[in-house]
UniProtKB/TrEMBL annotation:
The chain crosses the membrane at residues 337-362. PANTHER family: DUF3176 DOMAIN-CONTAINING PROTEIN. It comes from Trichocladium antarcticum. Residues 122-140 have a biased composition (Acidic residues). Residues 239-251 have a biased composition (Polar residues). This is Uncharacterized protein. It comes from the Eukaryota. Keywords: Membrane, Transmembrane, Transmembrane helix.
Length: 402
């Protein structure tokens, strides 16, 4: 039932475990609660900082229901799918212009999460069936990838900065209710949405009062992306195209002077993992018995249809909240070294370095003797041989003037 979804590419590298955990944490976080942004650390319990900006990950959700075409009533097998225990019921096929579809009804299958393969020249396209599964090119050709920029968006234009710095995009085709609609036409209950995960710049306002930390995003702006030619890696002799590292990508703030650099290979791993998770079906009435359900599609379906009843606005808000929580959790793994931390480290290191150089200068001024190989002796700079002998036993090493 994973209609028109690209088979996930097997890459030699693996996504960082922290990023995987962050994505999972965002998916399973309470959908009616926001994952808090970066939290400040204040030893005194009362601290104030000025607003600061940093690279972040954001989520955008757009309605694409106007791109749906809904068929007349049919049986699941006549529509080319199997709905398990619901095969005997009447359904409709709601199909987007990019080929993604949901075969279901309010009382059978309520959600399909999937993503399209990227259009390629048919003369070079690998064999594939109507489901769009692709087993071909894995060389990392950027024209076959839908990130930096997204090449499969329906809701966002190419001029939109979010498209140029996209990490991944996927689609949801769903019903806006899970009960029988009576005399209301079934075709009116089908809806669709596009989710776009993209890089952005967040401005944070943070403070700590009486030991309680507060942090919120006060502004979020888009970025423009361009290839970082100065960071291009030239492969060595005999290197295959699949082993070449792609160049970095510069992300420039559209509202400020910030410039950020990301590695395309790292984004490729993130894109692959996100798409491997966000796929599957959901049935409010039949659950996993309908087939095609995944852990993520179950979490999404529960968030969307868990209310009793869920209004169309509630469903849309649930998608927005869940994907925003994923984006915020991911941001925390990307932005893990901020200026307050740097200041603390500097305040600790500077006195230590001053003290170290003071000892070096003092030992030189006192014309001390150095013991060349014994570590303990070297640690006792400035002490005379007879004193070392009393403290450490017989000293046999030669001494030399400082």
């Amino acid at each position: 039932m994973l209609a028109a979804s690209v088979a996930n590419r097997v890459l030699p590298e693996k996504l960082d475990t922290r990023e995987k955990q962050a994505i999972q944490s965002g998916i399973y976080h309470a959908v009616d609660e926001e994952v808090p942004p970066l939290q400040p650390i204040c030893s005194s319990g009362d601290c104030q900082w000025g607003n600061f900006s940093s690279l972040a990950i954001c989520a955008a959700v757009a309605d694409v229901s106007d791109r749906l075409t809904v068929s007349s009533q049919t049986r699941p097998r006549d529509a080319g799918v199997s709905l398990g225990v619901a095969n005997g019921e009447t359904v409709r096929s709601a199909r987007l212009t990019n080929g993604l579809f949901l075969v279901g009804s309010t009382t059978t299958c309520n959600l399909n999460v999937s993503w399209p393969r990227i259009p390629v020249d048919t003369s070079e396209d690998e064999t594939g069936d109507e489901t769009g599964d692709e087993t071909g090119d894995e060389t990392g050709d950027e024209s076959h990838e839908s990130f930096l920029p997204a090449r499969t968006s329906l809701a966002f234009s190419e001029q939109d900065g979010r498209v140029s710095n996209a990490i991944a995009n996927f689609f949801l085709v769903y019903t806006n209710q899970t009960a029988a609609v009576g005399s209301k036409p079934q075709q009116d209950v089908f809806r669709a949405a596009e989710v776009l995960l993209h890089f952005c710049v967040n401005t944070y306002q943070v403070s700590t009062s009486r030991g309680v930390s507060a942090s919120k995003v006060v502004h979020s702006s888009t970025l423009s992306a361009q290839q970082d030619l100065s960071n291009k890696v030239v492969p060595g002799r005999g290197a295959s195209s699949s082993s070449q590292q792609s160049p970095g990508v510069l992300l420039r703030s559209t509202t400020g002077s910030g410039v950020y650099s990301v590695k395309r290979d790292d984004v490729r791993l993130l894109n692959s993992y996100v798409l491997s998770l966000f796929s599957g079906t959901y049935s409010y009435q039949y659950g996993s018995r309908i087939g095609g359900e995944t852990a993520t599609s179950e979490a999404l379906g529960t968030a969307m249809f868990g209310g009793n009843p869920s209004s169309e606005d509630d469903i849309r808000d649930a998608v927005r909240n869940l994907t925003s929580n994923v984006a915020t959790s991911l941001t925390k793994t990307q932005v893990n070294f901020i200026w307050p931390t740097a200041i603390c480290i500097i305040l600790f290191l500077v006195p230590f370095l001053f003290f170290f150089f003071f000892l070096v200068l003092l030992s030189s001024a006192l014309s001390c003797k150095h013991y060349s190989s014994n570590n303990a002796a070297r640690a006792l700079l400035g002490q005379r041989p007879h004193r070392l002998a009393r403290c450490m036993g017989h000293v046999t090493e030669k001494t030399a003037p400082c």
